[in-house]
Design brief:
- It contains eight helices and twelve strands.
- The protein has helices at 8-17, 24-33, 75-86, 101-106, 142-153, 158-167, 202-213, 232-237, and strands spanning 35-41, 44-54, 58-66, 91-96, 110-121, 134-136, 169-175, 178-188, 191-199, 220-226, 241-251, 262-265.
- Strands 1, 2, 3, 4, 5, 6, 7, 8, 9, 10, 11 and 12 form a twelve-stranded mixed sheet that branches.
- The longest helix is centred in the first third of the chain and has 12 residues, at 75-86.
Amino acid sequence: MKIETRHLQGALRLSQEMGWPYRLQDWEFAATVGEGLVIERAGEVIGTAMWWNYGQAYATAGMIIVTASAQGAGYGSQLFNGVLQATVGRNVLLNSTAEGLALYKRRGFTAWSTVLQHQGTLTVAVTLNARDDIRPATISDLMGIQAFDQRATGMSRQSMVAQLADVGNVVVVERAGRIAGYAIARKFGRGYVIGPCAAESAQDARLLILAQLSKLHGQFVRIDVYAEDELSDWLEGLGLKQVSHATAMVKGQRPESDGTARMYALANQSFG
């Protein structure tokens, strides 16, 4: 059945069982911006799966969980079949744990990158020298941020970006009167997550991340980055240790970024 508000407390228990750091508010946000399915047994949520459609061409999938006592009974396949049916006609992206790789490969997903999860309490004093090109975003920047996100991801994520910006703190790179990068920090899990972060170079991505970290001293911070962008060692140097990784996979055609714009840090591993 479709996920509803009444299911979210049960969904939270599932993610806690998995050791995932989601809060009830994180489930509420995910359900607001996406769609999902649940399986109940005796009135208890025993499985979840969610997806987020980005235009007519793409979707991401995630938050696919089956309680330990019900694993091996085909519930995971049932839920994932529902996701694929709901996203039929779209190219589907997801980030897989080691446990999910076999299932996704059987369904035609192929790996294209590795996502590295960095996190920790920010104890390093981070400062960013005043720069004319990096500043807090204003409401009037939203369309420029959305356009840059589409360049960076190759997907139409205007609604998702608007809702992330609404609940988070946004900084932008502005050059020659145009948005050339952005980063959002918002409350998530044990503290804050920085992402999405999209920019035209790794150097700009670092500056945007530093601008966000400069406001988060003493807070627990999470950042998920792509391995090929070589931000991992830099984040380690800031005290944000790599604690896990996921395999970025796609069924169909992977979206292509436009020009130099690219995504450096994810909103989370489900949204992309």
